[in-house]
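=== RUN LOG ===
request id: a7f3
mode: sequence -> structure
chains: 1
length: 508
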Amino acid sequence: MIAYSIVIPTLGRPCLAAMLESLAAARGPAPRRILLVDDRPRDGWPLTVPPPLASCTDILTAGGRGPAAARNMGWRAADTPWVVFLDDDVRVAPDWREALAADLDGLADRIAGVQGLVSVPLPADRRPTDWERGTAGLARARWITADMAYRRDALVECGGFDERFPRAFREDADLALRVLADGWRLETGWRRTEHPVRPASAWISVKTQRGNADDALMRAVHGPGWPERAGETRGRRTRHLAIVGAALTAAGLAVAGLRRSAATAATAAFGGIAEFAAARIIPGPRTAKEVATMAATSVLIPPAAVWHWARGTWRSRGARPWPAPPKAILFDRDGTLIEDEPYNGDPDKVVLVPTARDAVELARSRGLRIGVVSNQSGIARGLVSPAQVTAVNDRVEELLGPFGTWQVCPHGPDDGCSCRKPEPGMVRQAADELGVDPADCVVIGDIGPDLAAAHAAGARGVLVPTAQTRHEELAGARIAADLREAVEIALGVTSAALYWPGEPGAVR
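=== RESULT ===
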């Protein structure tokens, strides 16, 4: 059975109750956890959860940091292989949980996400308004978090949602593009979700122009071709620029006393606005209220769109893709920093791997905190004493300088501890001692348990394969040729997509 969690960011809107009721009534396997993330900037009325969901629901407080940060808080608190994102204004179909299980069952390891089928009900007795038609576009959107399931490992490796996106706009497209760039694949499933059109003010179309700033950030981090890769249309920005340019030209010419030329430019601006208004009015209900709203907002939208685009372009200059560089690097010891000498308790047998000194010095020179996380089951097996392990660790520090934390698991594989990799205990403890969040750490190791421990804790990982590394452990990992390159990958100095078996050139 597929284990999954559900993350729902919310502002406590009335629609949340209907959404949770539909989820409670759905047939099929229940989620292990529901993470309901309250993103209201101030405390409000308590959020209520239907009794069937109460036992598996945790309410987290995000404090008004935006939907991207709220979703990150939610999925990082999840401990299941799959995380499903739902918006608080959708309603899932009666068979949604059954269909979700079918969507996720038997997927290839390389498939990182599966989108649900989103529909937007429109009025049957009249033509839809401009706002309703805009909302209906969600049914054609790709990878939207109205209903999107992701592997947690994929979220960890790409750093989750870019928290520089302050609105529920483009943050899902940005995530999908980064996941795809890592070599994962995304698919569309068969589960169904309905997204009703929520009530909105007459000026909503002007307010939504703030999204142009998010488009500018998308261009800065993904390049000018991002709309095609994300399945988005170019929209009317070029026409809005032309309208605003004509209007500004008309004003300048009028100030200069060139009235005829000013009139020509003003006519061009008015013509652009008239065409824009007509394109919005003709498909709609054409009531007096709708026509008046479209006429008024069609005057305001072009300058609003251009202003937000210019503001976003300025603010996003020099922006690099999410996530930010790490604050700490956690190294495995045997096979990563030093040559693997099984159950070694003799400091004289410590031999650094090639580039170990360069790698550690590079990390220090960039201001990173560094630590070591090491399984030492030889203690539990009686093959080496704690004092001998400490002596070997001291020798490593003699050769490489001090580390901010040493985490050693003395247990055997059958002891059931929470610290032995692939369990996340040592990674979490190391991050805590270094004063950083696990999400701000990169774990560098040589075998699959190193990467699994990183992901379980919410940290990214890089593997430097050795003779002990099994080929199947490399799937879905960032691979470095040596330890220095691993640090460069962690810093973003060197790019490395995830390795997928069968692809040429993936492992050097």
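=== NOTES ===
The chain has a mean pLDDT of 94.
Residues 115 and 148 are 4 Å apart (CA to CA).
=== END ===
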